[in-house]
Amino acid sequence: MTRSLSTDVAGAAMAMHEAAGVRCLMGVGVTGITGRKGQLTVTLDDGTELRAATVVVGIGAVPNDGWLAGSGLTVENGVVCDEYCRAVGTTHVYAVGDVARWFDRARGAHVRAEHWTNAVDQAACVAHNILHPTNLRAYEPVEFVWSDQHGWKIQVVGDTTGSAATTLLGDPTADRRFAALYADGQGLLRGTVVVNWPRVMVQCRKALREGTAWSDLEPGLRAVVNAASRPETKA
């Protein structure tokens, strides 16, 4: 998970799985699967053999763009689009969803996202651009994905790839509630990973949409942490 999250947060996610009884084997590959339904043997490249009733293979995905061969569109890991989700070199062809690789002005690079929230937001932008060709709107999303695992709600917003988190709220190795926040080189929040902490997620999503400076955001987040750590009082 270090491709999508920093090493410290990825380690916390792995510890979460292990605490739930999941055995994680890292740095090994699969060389073969033999047997029959319900009675399988998985052989690893270090010679280890694992017994399994069911095997799930997760090897990633590639965009289904082969049918566009010969269309005249630029197809490289999806349909290459400009910042308006318009296929490059065209004026009336747009792409939406997993197959669209648009130019993200914030990152200065082409991006392809595989999540339904991206497809929904992208479709709204493209609908506007089709209806208003003289007033095109750049697609500049604040990425948002989530997953429920072992009673944890893991929410990821913005860009969390690359270096380690700038700030950690809570202890990822000990707490069931924590947040990892990532700042960019200009002092703005660029992404965050939040576990079981809705108030922090609300503030971070708002900060990303509005381009709030990190120095302005951090005091409010610290106040949330302090309020959460105060002992409860009873009347």
Give the helices and strands, then pairings.
Layout: H1 7-19, E1 30-36, E2 39-44, E3 49-52, E4 79-80, E5 100-104, E6 109-111, H2 116-131, E7 144-149, E8 152-158, E9 167-169, E10 178-183, E11 189-195, H3 198-210, H4 214-229
Parallel strand pairs: 4-5
Antiparallel strand pairs: 1-2, 2-3, 5-6, 7-8, 8-11, 9-10, 10-11
Helix pairs in contact: 3-4
Distance between the termini: 46 Å
Detail the poorly predicted runs.
231-235
Give average pLDDT, whole number.
88
Radius of gyration: 22 Å
Hey, roughly how much beta strand do the residues contain?
15-25%
Specify the overall morphology. flat
Q: What do we call the CATH homologous superfamily of the domain at 144-229?
A: FAD/NAD-linked reductase, C-terminal dimerisation domain
Order of helices and strands: HEEEEEEHEEEEEHH
Count of alpha/pi helices: 4
What is the CATH-assigned architecture of the domain at 144-229? 2-Layer Sandwich
CATH class of the domain at 144-229: Alpha Beta
Count of β-strands: 11
Helix content: 10-25%
Structural class designation = alpha+beta
Strand order of the largest sheet: 7-8-11-10-9
Main sheet attributes: strand count, strand direction, barrel closure: 5 strands, antiparallel
Q: How would you portray this structure in words?
A:
The protein is an alpha+beta fold and about 240 residues long. Among the domains are: about 70-130, no CATH class; about 145-230, FAD/NAD-linked reductase, C-terminal dimerisation domain (Enolase-like, domain 1), CATH 3.30.390.30. About 25% of the residues lie in helices and about 25% in strands. It is built from 4 helices and 11 strands, in the order H-E-E-E-E-E-E-H-E-E-E-E-E-H-H. The strands form 3 sheets. It has a 5-stranded antiparallel sheet, covered by helices on one side. Strands 1-2-3 form a 3-stranded antiparallel sheet, with no helix packed on it. The protein has a 3-stranded mixed sheet with strand order 4-5-6, with no helix packed on it. It starts with 6 loop residues before the first helix and ends in a 6-residue tail after the last helix. About 25% of the residues are buried. Keywords: FAD, Flavoprotein, Oxidoreductase. Its cofactor is FAD. It comes from Streptomyces albipurpureus.
